[in-house]
């Protein structure tokens, strides 16, 4: 008998994790950020609970600044899965008009970190699936699959529960919650490989196409709508670009590329000699920035 | 960044550029090996992992640039790259130069994908290593060639073997510092072989290497022509993974979740722990023992005829049998065992030591039960593997103890498989995972003690007395008024012709429990015995009153759990400490304050207040009769007693 391939082992592990949470948590939710990792996670959820639907809603913590193509796929993906989609926008950030042009780091803090905490508290979710992977960043390498958060949504690296075998401790006191990462052991290449093998739909922005862009601070930014503030003398230029990661469009750097098929994108990814997350401005802070953000409740 | 370093950064396979689809097809067919590296910082463990990532070109140019900068700033290798910095993750530990937890790293070669569990080498070692090893197929044990077999080598080897890792690789590191001498290597291998046999390690593979220079890490080394074996990476690429072994065992699948999307479908979802299963196979639902047939198998990609160990599937059964989360579906002719008492090896992982006799949640597969642990038969000295006597288990202790569950569980000895042999213990108050356990064997008596079927039932006893049995559990500080109130409540019951009995300190501590002291373990056992006596009396139809401080919530909950729902009635005499101490009827507070009594509740030992008491009353400044009336009225009003 030939053994399971690494993708089969990863798939089986993720499905086990998804089911374990549904069996033990009172009110789970899946964080859906519309990126390729979210797409894989949603796909696995559909498999885990077939022939039924995944017995939890999707939650998108919206910043109002995502790419238009992301909103389009989000609505369709939720509908096709037959799952309820909850969209949360931090009302305070909305009232203050927080945006990536004027508010820098506060944009992420208020829309994403605060917005997420608000949504989890508002709906009383005690377990939230997230698509983070251990290979993304150093402090993630030590993250548990079931990550325990205090009632204030804080993450204390010293208070995390040991995880042995495939036994996960999901017991909580009132107000406490879990962030659960079914893709912990997947690498970026595994994600791409699985998208190819399973024919999973992803946002077209991952594929190269001519798009209006400006170059700013060494980053190629896409002018996705009329809210983009052009500097004096700045004129959008059409370039063939694609994105390696997707976030708020004014904060997400594109790469110039001709790769317009999955194979070509993966080929380009593998031929690239810099790490994946360089396109995202959030990581350009000091080396330990992600750990700090996690302590504060960032996903 | 220097040119030499750029040259060593991630470089893709040639096939990626030539034929990406062929490359992807090859990658998709790769197997996966999970391994753990064991050793302390001094052994060069992080350096070795950094070197593996580096030489297998899993590091990107930008990461290397950051590494070069970090090496110059905080590195320990002078002008050279400090590979350890690649592996050390959290901010605090980077500053201290130590790793503090289990970290998982990923890399792949043309043949295989690897997940490395990296664990630190200081005092938290046992806990972290056992955690990392629990999911590993292989262990790489590092030895400093200059130092040979050390105490820690023995500890790492013992732990790897304890967790059941079958592939042990002895990486004799820092060969560059012993002039790549064959004699040094041969002596270390001979020493290790002698030791390994004593702890039951049957085979191992030894490789001489240098994490610093890269010799024999990913390729052969010119410096050691006398060594003709594989490099570390080549060996890891060639190790057999355990899939086939698991698949050859009898079928077992813990039921994780019952899938009922509509009335027409009832599927049992789970990950197959062992064996294979086919449509039409006869399976047994354990523990109920009902036998049925597999109707359909739903795999990740739809309907299947066969599924095998490691896969997550959904099974439907031919008959409408009772089956839910916690049950195990197993080969009909070869089911796993069922027992409520067994002997296990337990690794304690919490700062708070084991409280023998206290209830913990035990999670094994998809089963969660309440379990108590007896004082350990012995604790293992991980350095010498000798057996020591100890009253409890403290952080990082490994001991062998009897485990009693409140109901039977389905299990296999850990040696047969981790999925039904490994468990965790969870503290019922804090919900922390406090221990990992491995079942050695069931206790013989578990199979032999059967409940005597009784004709005169609990209900018959109660009906004869014309009352509903209760256990009125009075709890509160010493001097709070528990005994006084309980005594008067019993007098009222007696006057009404009810059949009752009062258990309090005098008739218990001087008799049944006179062998117990006031330590935490003694107090837990005291309450356990009182709970059992109260249960017998309630079974006999009596209204039992108890008056004990019973300071720990866990023990009160344990007694509640012993009794049928609604029988246990918690009455919290909530007199504040200052008031109780002022009363000090027996002069105990004065002695405790003077340090003459250790572990005195309220002074030197905690009192955990009830969170859901049926009755709660503060006696401060009130007459006894008034308090008794209020307790009585509350019990009657809530239906616990009939007036």
Strand and helix layout:
The complex is a heterodimer of chains A (299) and B (643).
Chain A: H1 6-24, E1 28-31, H2 36-49, E2 58-62, H3 68-81, E3 85-89, H4 91-96, H5 105-123, E4 127-129, E5 146-149, E6 177-180, H6 188-198, E7 209-216, E8 219-222, E9 237-242, E10 255-256, H7 262-271, H8 289-296
Parallel strand pairs in A: 1-2, 1-4, 2-3, 4-6
Antiparallel strand pairs in A: 5-6, 7-8, 7-9, 9-10
Helix pairs in contact in A: 1-2, 6-7
Chain B: H1 3-8, H2 14-18, H3 20-28, E1 31-38, H4 45-55, H5 61-74, H6 84-87, H7 91-96, E2 103-108, E3 112-118, H8 125-133, E4 138-144, H9 151-162, E5 167-173, H10 182-199, E6 205-208, H11 232-238, H12 243-247, E7 252-254, E8 257-262, E9 265-271, E10 276-278, E11 282-286, E12 291-299, E13 302-304, E14 306-308, E15 312-317, E16 328-331, E17 337-348, E18 359-364, E19 367-373, E20 378-380, E21 387-388, E22 398-411, E23 422-427, E24 433-442, H13 444-448, H14 458-465, E25 470-475, H15 482-495, E26 500-504, H16 505-512, H17 520-539, E27 543-547, H18 553-562, E28 568-573, H19 577-583, H20 588-593, E29 615-617, H21 624-637
Explain what this protein looks like in three dimensions.
The complex is a heterodimer of chains A (299) and B (643). Chain A is α/β, with parallel strands linked by helices. Chain A is built from eight helices and ten strands. Chain A has helices at residues 6-24, 36-49, 68-81, 91-96, 105-123, 188-198, 262-271, 289-296; strands at residues 28-31, 58-62, 85-89, 127-129, 146-149, 177-180, 209-216, 219-222, 237-242, 255-256. In chain A, α1 crosses α2 and α6 (188-198) packs antiparallel against α7. The longest helix of chain A has 19 residues, at 6-24. Chain A is globular. With 643 residues, chain B is of the alpha+beta class. Chain B is 31% helix and 27% strand. Chain B has 21 helices and 29 strands. In chain B, strands 7, 8, 9, 11, 12, 13, 15 and 16 form an eight-stranded antiparallel β-sheet that branches. In chain B, a hairpin with a 2-residue loop joins β8 (257-262) and β9 (265-271). In chain B, α15 (482-495) crosses α21 (624-637) and α17 runs parallel beside α18 (553-562). Chain B starts with a helix and ends in a 6-residue tail after the last helix. The model of chain B is unreliable at 1-7 and 446-452 (pLDDT under 50). At the A-B interface, α1, α2, α6 and α7 of A face α3, α5, α7, β2 and β3 of B.
């Amino acid at each position: 008998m030939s053994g399971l391939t690494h993708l089969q082992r990863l798939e089986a592990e993720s499905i086990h994790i998804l089911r374990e949470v549904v069996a033990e948590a009172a009110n789970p939710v899946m964080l859906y950020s519309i990126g390729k990792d979210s797409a894989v996670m949603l796909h696995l959820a559909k498999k885990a609970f077939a022939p039924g639907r995944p017995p939890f809603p999707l939650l998108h913590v919206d910043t109002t600044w995502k790419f238009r193509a992301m909103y389009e796929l989000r609505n369709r993906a939720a509908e096709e899965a037959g799952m309820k989609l909850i969209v949360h926008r931090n009302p305070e950030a909305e009232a203050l008009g927080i945006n990536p042009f004027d508010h820098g780091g506060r944009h992420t803090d208020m829309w994403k970190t605060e917005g997420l905490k608000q949504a989890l508290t508002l709906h009383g979710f005690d377990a939230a699936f997230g698509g983070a992977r251990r290979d993304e960043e150093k402090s993630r390498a030590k993250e548990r699959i079931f990550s325990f958060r205090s009632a204030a949504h804080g993450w204390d690296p010293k208070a995390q529960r040991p995880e042995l075998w495939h036994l996960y401790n999901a017991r909580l006191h009132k107000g406490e919650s879990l962030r659960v990462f079914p893709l912990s052991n997947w690498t970026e290449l595994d994600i791409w490989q699985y998208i190819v093998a399973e024919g999973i739909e992803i946002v077209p922005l991952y594929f190269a196409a001519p798009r209006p862009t400006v170059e700013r601070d060494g980053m190629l930014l896409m002018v996705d709508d009329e809210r983009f503030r052009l500097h004096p003398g700045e004129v959008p230029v059409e370039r063939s670009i694609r994105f390696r990661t997707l976030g708020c469009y004014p904060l997400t750097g594109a790469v110039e590329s001709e790769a317009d098929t999955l194979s070509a994108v993966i080929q380009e990814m593998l031929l690239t000699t810099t790490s994946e997350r360089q396109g995202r401005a959030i990581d350009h802070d000091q080396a330990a920035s992600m750990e700090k953000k996690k302590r504060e409740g960032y996903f | 960044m220097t040119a030499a370093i750029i040259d060593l950064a991630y470089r893709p396979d040639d096939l990626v550029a030539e034929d990406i689809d062929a490359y992807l097809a090859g990658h998709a067919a790769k197997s996966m090996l999970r391994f753990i590296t064991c050793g302390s910082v001094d052994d060069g463990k992080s350096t070795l992992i950094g070197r593996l990532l580096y030489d297998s070109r899993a590091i990107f140019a930008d990461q290397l640039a950051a590494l070069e900068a970090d090496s110059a700033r905080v590195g320990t290798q002078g002008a050279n790259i400090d590979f350890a910095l690649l592996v050390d993750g959290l901010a605090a530990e980077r500053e201290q130069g130590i790793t503090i937890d289990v970290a998982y790293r990923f890399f792949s070669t043309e043949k295989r994908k690897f997940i490395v569990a990296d664990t630190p080498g200081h005092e938290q070692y046992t806990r972290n290593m056992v955690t990392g090893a629990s999911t590993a197929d292989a262990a790489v044990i590092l030895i400093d060639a200059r130092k040979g077999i050390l105490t820690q080598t023995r500890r790492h080897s013992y732990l790897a073997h304890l967790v059941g890792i079958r592939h042990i690789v002895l990486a004799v590191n820092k060969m560059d510092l012993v002039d790549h001498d064959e004699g040094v290597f041969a002596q270390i291998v001979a020493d290790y072989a002698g030791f390994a046999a004593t702890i039951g390690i049957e085979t191992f593979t030894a490789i001489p290497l240098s994490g610093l220079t890269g010799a024999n890490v990913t390729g052969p080394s010119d410096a050691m022509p006398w060594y003709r074996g594989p490099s570390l990476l080549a060996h890891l690429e060639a190790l057999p993974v355990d899939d086939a072994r698991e698949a050859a065992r009898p079928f077992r699948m813990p039921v994780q979740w019952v899938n009922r999307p509509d009335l027409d479908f009832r599927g049992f979802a789970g990950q197959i722990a062992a064996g294979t299963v086919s449509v039409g196979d006869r399976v047994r639902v354990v523990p109920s023992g009902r036998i049925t047939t597999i109707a359909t198998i739903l795999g990740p990609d739809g309907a299947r005829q066969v599924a095998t160990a490691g896969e997550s599937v959904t099974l439907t059964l031919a008959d409408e049998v009772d089956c839910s989360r916690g049950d195990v579906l197993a080969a009909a002719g070869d089911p796993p065992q069922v027992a409520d008492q067994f002997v296990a090896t337990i690794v304690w992982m919490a700062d708070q030591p084991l409280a023998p006799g206290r209830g913990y949640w035990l999670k094994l597969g998809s089963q969660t039960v309440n379990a108590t642990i007896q004082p350990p038969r012995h604790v293992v000295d991980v350095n010498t593997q000798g057996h020591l006597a100890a009253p409890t288990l403290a952080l990082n202790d490994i001991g062998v103890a009897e485990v009693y569950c409140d109901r039977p569980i389905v299990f296999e000895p850990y040696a047969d498989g981790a999925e039904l042999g490994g468990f965790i213990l969870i503290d019922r108050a804090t919900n922390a995972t406090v221990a990992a356990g491995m079942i050695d064997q069931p206790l013989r008596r578990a199979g032999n003690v059967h409940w005597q079927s009784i004709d005169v039932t609990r209900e018959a006893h109660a009906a004869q007395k014309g009352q509903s049995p209760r256990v009125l559990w009075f709890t509160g500080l010493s001097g709070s008024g528990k005994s006084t109130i309980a005594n008067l409540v019993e007098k009222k019951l007696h006057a009404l012709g009810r059949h009752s009995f009062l258990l309090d300190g005098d008739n218990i501590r001087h008799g049944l429990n006179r062998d117990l002291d006031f330590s935490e373990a003694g107090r837990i056992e005291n309450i356990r015995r009182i709970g059992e006596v109260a249960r017998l009396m309630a079974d006999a139809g009596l209204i039992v009153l108890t008056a004990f401080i019973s300071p720990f919530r866990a023990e009160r909950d344990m007694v509640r759990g012993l009794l049928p729902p609604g029988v246990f009635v918690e009455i919290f005499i909530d007199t504040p400490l200052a008031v109780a101490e002022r009363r000090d009827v027996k002069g105990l507070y004065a002695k405790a304050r003077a340090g003459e009594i250790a572990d005195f509740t309220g002074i030197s030992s905690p009192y955990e207040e009830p969170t859901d008491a049926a009755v709660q009353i503060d006696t401060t400044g009130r007459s006894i009769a008034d308090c008794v009336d209020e307790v009585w009225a509350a019990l009657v009003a809530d239906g616990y007693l009939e007036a």
